[in-house]
Amino acid sequence: MNxxxxxxxPVKDQPGNANGVTxxxxxxxxxTVVGTGVMLASPLLSSAAxxxxxxxxxxVKQVMDLFIKxxxxxxxxxxxxxxxxxxxxxKVTGIVTTMFxxxxxxxKAIDLGANFIIAHEPTFYNHTDDTSWLKxxxxxxxxxxxxxxxxxxxxxxxxxIHHLVPDGVTTGVLAQLGWQSYADHALPNVxxxxxxxxxxxxxxxxxxxxxxxVRYVGNPDQVCKNVILIPGAxxxxxxxxxxxxxxPDVLVVGEISxxxxxxxxxxxxxxxxxxxxxVLGHIASxxxxxxxxxxxxxxxxxxxxxxxxxxGNSLSFM
Length: 318
Prior knowledge:
The chain has ten helices and twelve strands. The longest helix has 13 residues.
């Protein structure tokens, strides 16, 4: 989704940004796809969560509140991070973290005996999960009834994980790519790599992030050292603003509007600049945030079984 909040990369004035600066942090850490033997893991005891006795377990709200309390500036005044189904008072039998709470993910949660799904993105096909326009829609009704029938709570953890310092969705991407030591300490999205070709950089990203194909603009033989990494859908103005400010060799993003950043990079090359663009795909670029969430649960929510189940790409390549 679009991120009007914390961007680690300051950019030019944006609508709704009174300071003219946005801060965005990103993490990425990929796992196996659905159906490849995901197992529930038992987290270790953590003093951070010891106010709840393990023999009493946790409710959905207690787990949510534990995470929210770790986020600077919480609770957020305006957030999409609400329960999309279920009750906050439900006793948790197991947790699944994922990018999208798809019907396949719901069935996997049922198979695992989990009744709490923590998803990064919307459940009902729009940013705010407004369902008023879907009341008579068969797909919506099927999904909502499936969640209700199995008493499964779904919480969207989008704004809060992005407000962590550092962002719970750059830490993971960097870890999965093996780029942690190359990232700027203050601005993790700014990366200085050993010199490599664009072709090899793309090959590395595809292998590490389990991506079949990517889209790109640029010369495959271009030497790349300075990288800006912006997972998700930050928007053309932020992406182009980062190019203008940091002058990278390559901008690596999750998602673009094709008439914005891609056209800017194409024109920049025609002008004579040496700049490339790599488009990973929104889901591939942020799924590891759910792996980050799993790791957090293992450390801070003792006694609750949890698993990361990647939702996979909704789009196929021919």
